Amino acid sequence: MLANLRVMGRPVCGRSLIFLAILVLAACAQIDFPTPLPAIETITVAKPVDLSPTVVSPGTSTPTATTSPTHTITPTPTNTPAPAPTPGPTPDGIYRDVRVPILMYHYISVPPEGSHRYRVGNSLPPETFIEHLDYLQAEGYTTIYLKDLISYLVTGAPELPDKPIILTFDDGYEDVYLNAFPALFERDMLATFFIITDFATEAAENEAYELYADWEQLAEMAAADMEIGSHSRNHPNLAGNDLDYLVWQALGSQETIEANIGYHPHILSYPAGSYDAFVIDVFRSAHFWGAVTTEQGVDQDSDHIFELKRVRISQGAGVPQLHALLNYDWPE
C-alpha cells in the first residue's frame, strides 16, 4: 500500500515517509476526538451455547446488538528524532523589509584561453576582487552572514549594521579557496560559500573535479568563520522533481556537509536558480532557514526568505561597475 502512496500527485518512498509521518502526527494533534461511547453492558452466556432460534414472548424486547467503539491505532514511535516544529528562528509575525545587497560570485581567477563562455562570463580576476573588498570597506559596508539576515527578517534580531552586505560564492571552486578566502580573512570580512557536495567529495581524488575545493579546504574556511551552505548534491534543476528526489538532495547535501566539517548548514542556493513552491516546502521541512535565487535585486523582505534576491558579479565588473550596481534603483 505504501508503495502506491502519492502526495500532490507525486510518488513517495524512502526517507520521504519521515516528512509524511510528521505531517500526520501534527494533524492528529489538532483533531477534537469525540467523548468515548458509554460502556455497553454485555450478556455472559454459559457454555454450551444453544445456537437454535430463540422464541421471544410477547412484550419482551429483544436485546439490540451494539457495535463496540473502534480502537484508534496509534503509530509506534521510531528512534528517528522528529524535526522541531519550526526550523530556525521562530517568526514573530511582523512584516519587515530591508535593503541588503547579496553579491553573487563564482570564479575568482583568470579563465584559461579557450574556456567555455560560462567560465569566462562568471570569472573575476583576483586583483579585481581585492579592489571590490577595499571599496566596500572604504564605503562603510559591513559583511554579514546570510543566516543573520534571515533571522532579522523573521524576528527582528540580530540588529543589522548601517550598511550590511553579503558576499556569496556559488559552486565551491578551488580558486575561491586560493584567491578569495585569504583576501577576506586578511580584512576580517565574512562570506558565504555554497557547496555542491558530491563534487567536493570527488575533488580530492578525481581529476574530473579538480576545479572544486575539497573537504579539507572547505573545513579550513569554516574554521575561519566563513559561512557554508548547500548548493545541492550534484547541481540539478530542482523544479518539477518528486518528493523523494528532493529529500535526497536536501538531506543528502546537508548531512554530507555536517559529516565532513561538523557544520550544520541552514541555507541554500538553488542550482541555476531553478525552484518552485514544492521545492521550497521540502527544503523548509528539512530545516533550511532560507535560500537565495538568481533574481536580480537588493530589497529583501520577511515574506520571501526562500526567494532572496542577489546581484550577479560578472566578467569585467570593476569598482565603477560595482558602485553602479550597489546604487542602482532596482525594480521591486
How is the topology of this model organized?
Elements: E1 6-7, E2 10-11, H1 16-28, E3 97-99, E4 102-105, H2 117-121, H3 126-138, E5 142-143, H4 146-155, E6 164-171, H5 174-186, E7 192-195, H6 197-203, H7 215-223, E8 227-230, H8 243-261, E9 267-269, H9 277-285, E10 290-296, E11 299-301, E12 308-312, H10 319-327
Parallel strand pairs: 4-6, 4-12, 5-6, 6-7, 7-8, 9-10, 10-12
Antiparallel strand pairs: 1-2, 3-11
Helix pairs in contact: 3-5, 8-9
Describe this structure in words.
The structure is a single chain. By secondary structure, this protein is an alpha/beta fold. It starts with 5 loop residues before the first strand and ends in a 5-residue tail after the last helix. The protein has helices at 16-28, 117-121, 126-138, 146-155, 174-186, 197-203, 215-223, 243-261, 277-285, 319-327, and strands at 6-7, 10-11, 97-99, 102-105, 142-143, 164-171, 192-195, 227-230, 267-269, 290-296, 299-301, 308-312. The protein has 10 helices and 12 strands. Strands 4, 5, 6, 7, 8, 9, 10 and 12 form an 8-stranded parallel β-sheet that branches. Helix 3 packs parallel to helix 5 and helix 8 (243-261) packs across helix 9. Helices cover 32% and strands 14% of the residues. The protein has a domain at 97-327: TIM Barrel, CATH 3.20.20.370.
